[in-house]
Amino acid sequence: MNTVTLNQKRFQLQDIPTRLNHLAAHLDQIQSLILTGTDSDTVVSLMRESRYYIEWIVPEFVDIDVDSSAELVDLGRVLTRWLFNWEKIWVDTDSRTEVAQITSGLSERVREISKVAS
Q1: Counting beta carbons within 10 angstroms of the beta carbon of residue 47, is it exposed (0 to 12), middle (13 to 18) or buried (19 or more)?
Q2: Is 39 inside any structural domain?
Q3: What pLDDT, on the 0 to 100 scale, is given for residue 1?
Q4: Contact 80, 51 (CB under 8 A)
Q5: What is the pTM of this model?
Q6: Per-position DSSP letters for 24-66, written without gaps between them
Q7: Is residue 92 assigned to a domain?
Q8: Which of 12, 47, 92, 108 has CA atoms 20 to 30 A from the CA of 3?
């Protein structure tokens, strides 16, 4: 069994609000690292892991809240777009600041969704 499979099994043992809070925490870490501008590789790793989290949350959550599930899927698309353009974003201070601001709002929204899922 690979690490992703092991992490997925452990992650999916948690309830959906807890999973959503893990996702929000990742977004907070991403924002913090972007603002300090110190560790691009960790930001990329956290973005990739966040996409997995979304993939592991939505299939069960869609039966509870379709609209919020769609928001999470959109968040995954945003992360994918950023990853695709990450080298350009990282070297441009204005782009990094914009991504950090957006990430802050997304984290807050994920926390709101976690309350609905409770």
Answers
A1: buried
A2: yes
A3: 46
A4: yes
A5: 0.91
A6: HHHHHHHHHHHHHT--HHHHHHHHHHHHHHHHHHHHHHTTT-H
A7: yes
A8: 108
